[in-house]
Amino acid sequence: MAKGKDVRIKVILECNSCVRNGINKESPGISRYITQKNRHNTPSRLELRKFCPYCYKHTIHEEIKK
C-alpha cells in the first residue's frame, strides 16, 4: 500500500543569532535541533526558543529547508 503525504514531518530548527553573526552555514558553530511538526495544525514555519550552546543563551530557532 502506497503512503500518501505524512501529516507529521521532521523539521530542522536553526539558531537565528548564530546565522546573523556571519558564521558559515557549513561550520559546526550553528546550533540545530531536529523535531517534528503536524503539517495540518502548523502550516507556517515553526519558531521555538531553544538553548544555543554557541551563544550560551536561549535564542529563537527557526525552521529551515532540508
CATH superfamily: Ribosomal protein L33
Largest sheet: 4 strands, antiparallel
Radius of gyration, taken over Cα atoms and rounded to an integer in Å: 14 Å
What is the architecture at the second tier of CATH?
Single Sheet
* DSSP, total strands: 4
The CATH topology assignment is Rubrerythrin, domain 2
Q: Total number of helical segments?
A: 1
Q: Beta-strand level of the residues, as a percent range?
A: 35-45%
The domain count comes to 1
Gross morphology is: elongated
- Which sequence of strands runs across the widest sheet? 2-1-4-3
Q: Portion of residues in helices?
A: under 10%
Give unreliable regions as ranges.
Answer: none
Name of the CATH class: Mainly Beta
Give the N-terminus to C-terminus distance in angstroms.
Answer: 26 Å
Secondary-structure content class:
mainly beta
- Kindly state the mean pLDDT as a whole number? 82
What's the SSE pattern? EHEEE
Main location: plastid
Protein name: Large ribosomal subunit protein bL33c
Organism: Sargentodoxa cuneata
GO molecular function: structural constituent of ribosome
Write the layout of secondary structure elements.
Elements: E1 8-15, H1 16-20, E2 32-38, E3 47-52, E4 57-64
Antiparallel strand pairs: 1-2, 1-4, 3-4
Subcellular location: Plastid, Chloroplast
GO molecular function, one term: structural constituent of ribosome
Keywords: Chloroplast, Plastid, Ribonucleoprotein, Ribosomal protein
